[in-house]
Amino acid sequence: MSFAIHKQVHPPTGVDHAVAAYFTHPIGDGGPPNLVVTQANHLTIFAIRREGPGPGPRGGGGDDAALIAAAVAAVQSPAGGSRAGGGSHEVSLEVVAEFDLHGTVGSVAVLRRRFGAPRNQRDALLIAVRESKLSVVEFDPATLTLVNSSLHSWETSVGSGGIPSAQRVAPLPPLAAADPEGRC
């Protein structure tokens, strides 16, 4: 009998995917979206914080992309802070949660709340894993954990038309995509 052993010697350092989503708080609470970053098998959720004078928190204006870009620049700058919008406010990133995933992330998409849905709903993440799995996860604010709301696998036994379990890792990473209505 043989066993496979996996030991992660060094944590992942390079960012593979980054998306903006209202993942830990609903859009109705106001404020900018979260920055969700994946690094190999690691998922990190950042909150974007603004300090200083300027308009209060907003919920989903066109300025969110500029705010996220300023927050990323703040992390990359040696001083650890960035002035966005002509010095009107300081933007920084704060780690909200970190999770280790079981598999290497191939792609990530955001499942936005549907049109007409209550504004207190949060976005979900569609995570495609290289080991022939697709998962929809949501953030549970009560326990501060990920909740798997849907899990799909396209591996089957040999001879039944799917991907055999011995060849589970696809040669190319799967592509997760969602339309504006929140469908996969």
Automatic annotation (TrEMBL):
UniProt xrefs under InterPro entries: RSE1/DDB1/CFT1, WD40/YVTN_repeat-like_dom_sf
Domain of life: Eukaryota
Xref: PANTHER family: DNA REPAIR/RNA PROCESSING CPSF FAMILY
Protein's name in the database: Cleavage/polyadenylation specificity factor A subunit N-terminal domain-containing protein
Organism in which the protein naturally occurs: Mantoniella antarctica
UniProt lineage: Eukaryota, Viridiplantae, Chlorophyta, Mamiellophyceae, Mamiellales
